[in-house]
Amino acid sequence: MDKLKKRKLTTVSVMHYIRLVLRSSAFIALLVLYILHHTRGGQEVGEIIESHPVALTTIWLLFVIEMVMRFFPSKLESPGCQKQFARNYKKTGRTEIKIQDNNAVFLVALVWISLNLVFGGLHMMGIFDDGIMLLLCAAYSVCDIICILFFCPFQTWFLKNKCCATCRIYNWDYAMMFTPLFFISKTYTWSLLALSIVLLARWEITFFLHPERFSENTNGYLGCSNCSEKLCHHKKQLYGFWRNTAQALRNREKNIK
Predict the structure, then answer these.
(1) pLDDT surpasses 70 at 140
(2) Which of 23, 55, 164, 255 could tie 80 with a disulfide, CB 3.0–4.6 Å?
């Protein structure tokens, strides 16, 4: 019973859910605009967005603020991205740096770049328009939060890391999210992509200089007792709910038969 004990959402987790709602709303809005354009004609999605500078600036600014916050220590961010800072390095007394998922990052990078090169190629061939690339970007932004809150294919299939706190590529998220923007030559798209790449570079440079901060064996900050998210508990509760629901449905089917 203790393992299934309900826990309240932490502040960090609440922030993730807020981002999920906002990003999902943005994706749905873009999808509706795209469908309306292709069924009724009129302006393309990009043109519609640019014709509303207040909305465009607001969305752009929100992402910029989120990325800028990642450059500094913050209690409102996940331990996964905060482990890079010196103040969060808590020595365990052990000296062996163990980062099991380090080699897998190259495979992740290769898969992600290859996938988006395909999309970029379709865009350059005229099969995908700017609207599709913006939709891809919005979809990636939603999937980013889904990876944190519910299920992460990179964790499960490639990296095999314990949780987000120990994730080797946590701060790759914005660069991965904005990859499709490379193919849209606009100031607001390339500025977001450029800032995300700087964020990724900062992360990788820190890892190169201070790998001990990224290893749970040497950094006690990454231990479960110091976690400020407790998302694993919420995931277990969610999986338990799914299992119980599935079992209830099976029992109901048996009773009907």
Answers:
(1) yes
(2) 164
d(CA 53, CA 85): 36
Residue with tokens 């200089």: 209
Is there a contact between 216 and 98 (Cβ–Cβ < 8 Å)?
yes
pTM, full prediction = 0.90
Alpha-carbon distance of 223 to 229, in angstroms, equals 12
185, 187, 189, 192: CA torsion to nearest 10: 140
Q: Which residue has the tokens 């998922």?
A: 101
Q: Which residues pair with 91 in a beta bridge?
A: 219
d(CA 225, CA 213): 16
Cα separation, 154 vs 108, in Å, equals: 7
Residue 156 has pLDDT above 70, yes or no: yes
- The predicted model gives 27-46 an average pLDDT of 90
What are the residues whose beta carbons fall under 8 Å from the beta carbon of 32, sequence distance 6 or more? none
Closest CA to 29 of 112, 126, 131, 124: 131
